[in-house]
Amino acid sequence: MWDVDQALARYTLRKALQDDPKVRDVVGLAAARILVDEYMAEPSRPLTEADIRDFHSLILVGDPSAGRYKQYLNRIEGAAHIPIPPVDVPGAMHTLMTWLHEISVPIVWKSAVAHAWLTHIHPFDDGNGRIARLLANYVLGAGSYPPLIVKSTSDRPRYLAALSHSDEAGDISTLVRLFLKVLNRGVEFMERPQFAWDLFQADLIVREQSIYTRWRQTVARFFDEVAARLLLSHKSLAIIGDVSASDYELLSKGDRYGNAWYAKASTPETRADLLIWVGYISDRMQRQLEVDQYFPSFFVAERDLDPRAVKPYRQRVGRHEPLYDELCIIADEERALIRRGTTSRKVNLADAAELFAALLTTYLDQLPTAA
To answer: Which domains are present in the chain?
Structure first.
């Protein structure tokens, strides 16, 4: 503990390398440790373009494009933004690295801007997301912050939406909010080591017949039924996320850090869409379950079409109050508890799917039509 800042810096970058499956499989744990020791040995040395290309060479070892800027115009899958042409990449990367060395802003903002800026440039043919996350964690580690570990299940949909928002609206605040949420979760784990260990165990040792597994399977079947019913109404439901065992554990303790985006409902005729997200059950609903029962709840939110909106979705639909609707799937009873406002009732899963699909259809029909 002779140098806490140095220890945190090494931990952050090493964790970032080891927790990204694509990076870990290529680099390996031992190489990750050596790389971190090399880059963090002299904290005062500024990061350079050559370092970024070296990172790229390492994580794409064996690829012909490893360590080289792109030679052709590329696209970001699923995004409207078109990255800059290859001829402008060296100048743009030089500007980014100069900004990193000279700017003085809060570390989380600096990390988010660096991440968004690199993905906006998209300097490589492949591996841009991995390099951006490494760069963000390098900035965080240099500032003695914990690692930014974006969960592929619960965080990824919001992560991609935040990046798209920063590209299209020029607004970094949504990405900063997500970074803060993920970092706060990391700080909580560091403060409560036993709790963090319990979550780690929950992710690794999920027995086949555990209540989490049963709940997850029941939820999947339920939303398959909802999607089929929406399809008959010329509407669609896309599953965009998942609830990991650790998220489930957090929600069972009433911790909002387990919240996750789960699905989106949409129709070709409307400009907006609906988000179905998972959160912890409300007290009103919990009182209707048995003492030993606990399951997360699903809520509905509407896309906010205001370009100045801080969040892409608002926790209400139409004129209803936030959390007006709530759906809790009771896996061990094959039933669901549905609430609308102050009224709730238990029904079997088939009836619940029909009711929930009808509710989504009603809301979608009320959304603004496409221009």
So the answer is: 4-191 (1.10.3290.10), 205-366 (no CATH)
